[in-house]
Every structure is written in C-alpha cells, then in structure tokens.
Amino acid sequence: MRTNLMRGTAALTLAATALAMTACGSSSSSSKAGAASGGHGKVTLTFVNWDGGMQAAVDQWNQANPDIQVQLSKPSGTGYTLYNKLITNNAAGTNPDVTEVEYQALPALIANKVIVPIDQYVGDISADFDKSSLAQVQFEGKTYGVPQNVCPMVFFYRKDIFDSLGLKPPTTWDEYAADAATVHAKNPKQYIGNFSAVDSGWFAGLAQQAGANWWTTSGTTWNVAIDDAPTQKVANYWSGLIDKGLVSPEPNWSPQWSTDMNSGNIIGWVSAQWAPNQFPSVAKDTAGKWVAAPLPAWTAGDPTVGIWGGETEAVTANSKHPAEAAKFVKWLNSSTEGVKTLIQQVAAFPASLSNQSQDALKTPPPFMSDQQDYNTLIAQAAKNVRTFQVWGPNANVTFDAYSNDFAAALQNKTPLSAALTQMQQATVADLKKRGFSVTG
Questions:
Q1: At what angle do helices 416-433 and 229-243 cross, to 10 degrees?
Q2: Is the dihedral of CA 273, 276, 282, 283 positive or negative?
Q3: How many angstroms separate the first and last alpha carbons of the chain?
Q4: What's the whole-model pTM score?
C-alpha cells in the first residue's frame, strides 16, 4: 500500500540460486497449476490483502461472478511478515490463491517460486499501463501481476504558514534548501521538513528521481549500484541540510514527528500520493491547511519523480485455479468497476491509464477537500514517474541496512554517503551468500 509498510522490514529468507531472479520463475510451476485448474464448476479463491476497504471490491466481484467466489482475509502482519510466511508455506502448498505484494518485494517471491506468471490468462496488458508501472511486475518478458496503483512523490506544505512567511512551494531542491533556511531563521522551532532514516522506500524514491538504478541484471548476473553517483548526490544534499540544522531529524511516524506536524513545527512533508490518508492520524488538527505541490526538481522544469509505495496482486504457485485467480486480479486492477471501488474505498490512484480519468478521481481526499485539483496533480506526476529498472531479490536486506546505517549516521553525525557504502556492501554480501552471481 501507500503508507509506511516498507519500513521496519524483517529478514527475508531467499532461495539459494545462482540464477538471476527472473530465471527462477519457472514455467513449470505455472503449467502445473494451470493443469490443476480445470475451469469447471464453482470455484472459491482465497485472497490475502491488508488494505482497508478491499472487502467492498471483493463483494462487488462476488455479486457479479457467482461461479468464481473470492474469500478475503487479512494477514496477521504486513509487508515482509506476510512475504516470509508465503515463502515458508509454499512448500507445504498452503498459500492463498491470490496475495497482495508490494512492488519491491515481488522479485523475492519470484526467486522463491512462490508466484507464477499470468500472461496466458491476462494477455498483453501493455496498452493500459506505462513502462514504469509494467517494470514493477514484468521480468524477462513474463508478467507476474497487474499493477494496481502508482504512488508518485509530491511535496505537501502548510499553505497558511508558507503564506505568512511570504513563501511559495519550492520548485527545485535548491529552492527547498533556501526556503528551509528562511523558515528556520524566522522561527528556530520550525522546519520545512524532516529527514527520515527509517523510511528506505522514501529515500529510494528520491534516488529514483535523481537517476539511480540500484539493481540491474545482465544475463544471470546482478549488478548492485546503491552507492552510485545519483544516490550519492541525494545523500550529500540531505547531509548538508542536516549539518546546518535546517531539517528535523525526527523520522516519519515517530510520536515527536506527529506532534510537530500537528503543531506546525514541521510545515512540509516530502511524501507520496497516499499521504492525505495518513494526515488524520498524523496531524488531526490541521485538516484543510495542507496543500500538495509537485516534488522539487534537481533541474528547473524537469518533472521527473520517483515513487514511494505501490503494489500488485499475484497468483501463487499453490493455486489450483490460476486462470480464475488471474481473471480476478485483472478485473480488480484494470476494469472500470473494480478500479472505481479501489479509488473510493482503498484511496488508490490507479496505474491503469484508462482509469486515471475516472469521475471518482474528481473528488479530492477528505483531509484536503479544498484542493479540488489534487488528483489532477497526481495524474500529472504519474506521467513523469521514473523507477528503478528492477528491484533486487533482497531489497529487504537493503532496506534494513538503510534503517540501521542511516540512523547510525544521524546519531554519530557522520556523512550519509558512508552509510550508502555500507548499504552497498550489505546487499552484495547477502546476494553472494544466497548463491547469486553479483557484480558491484
């Protein structure tokens, strides 16, 4: 989903293999499952998903499809708690037919043969999704899910406070730095924003905007470049703001951060499409005071942004009804009816291009009811999303290293660029330990 699910990741058990991740999603699993499907009589599919409001979509499907019924359940944990369970249960054959998967975790499930390609069931979906969205679910020419949503990063700011300071939302990162100095000089208790050492997905989105590719593949070899020049640029930029005391070191979701957001001591948030759904629990007293603006650019006029969050639904290798499961997945994430329910009940911004102009998107999020063009802004940002070419099969290790090493850098007042080197080393070492061929 679009909240804070990519923080606090647990260690994910990866299958030891010398192959590139995408080569592990063998066609034999899909063929075996397809043979078991049969396609006759009433079918009941099990579906694991943690999003609030998803039951409405399931009910809608069940009413229209009496012969293919879906039973929804919520996992006991989210994120990598669920993914570890899926990997563990795969050998026992006890996984659900369909599971929710965040984009960055899909490669690990493919590597462990937990999920199967669905091309033969959904056909060519490329006409309704842009390359960035397809890159999240397609590997070596195989499709492992239908993209559900796109979560471009944007900048949220307290318009009332910005107006009182005579400021407009920054359009470049240079302007953001200058405004940060102005805000803090006017009131030493106030900050334009914060640096979050616990949100690896947040930092990854900023690196994507700058041009980073943390993982790439060549044949069966992975190349890891987490400490590449674009990412170093991002790290050094935030190091400069931190060293000058111009941004808060309080991480997203901490009690103090929420207090500061609610009180007006933090007056901006570099976040993503889903942020309005978090504001009621983060800054409940500030409804109507926040406005979204495009993410600051590295070069004036460049609309490129990264993503923070996003997910798909995948069909598991344990499913005895992969054709029916894939039919449900495609309906949920690309049909007019299914997507409308996701917009209204799950607050998703659809990855499906044909559904990005739905009337349901003309209504802004309740917390930002005064910004009527909110989803127009998101739609424009979504057109300019740049993602990594591929997520690595051990992204969770990278994310854990981020949380540990960046937090240590803040505490020890050392450069963030050194933490990048540690992330790089941890990621490469883990891949080698798991039997992958690695460079970097």
A1: 140
A2: positive
A3: 31
A4: 0.92
Tell me the Cα Rg of the chain.
22
Segment 89-145, tens digit of pLDDT? 999 999 999 999 999 999 999 999 999 999 999 999 999 999 999 999 999 899 999
Helices 200-210/395-412 angle, 10° precision: 100
- From residue 283, alpha-carbon distances to 11, 135, 257, 266 in Å are 32, 34, 10, 10
**Residues paired with residue 127 on neighbouring β-strands, in sequence order:** none
The whole-angstrom distance between residue 165's C-alpha and the CA centroid of its chain comes to 33
Cα distance between residue 59 and residue 9, in whole Å: 31
Which tokens sit at 182?
A: 């102005």
Cβ-based neighbours of 124, under 8 Å, separated by 6 or more: none
Q: Give the helix/strand (H/E) hosting 146.
A: strand 146-147
Three-state DSSP class for residue 218: strand
Handedness of CA 256, 257, 261, 264 (dihedral sign): positive
> What tokens does 290 get?
């926040």
Contact 108, 396 (CB under 8 A): yes
**What does the alpha-carbon distance between residue 37 and residue 246 come to, in Å, rounded to a whole number?**
59
**Which string of DSSP letters, residue by residue, matches 191-204?**
BS-B--TT-HHHHH
Cα 200 from chain centre: 10
In angstroms, the CA 388 to CA 297 distance is: 18
CA 285 to chain centre: 27
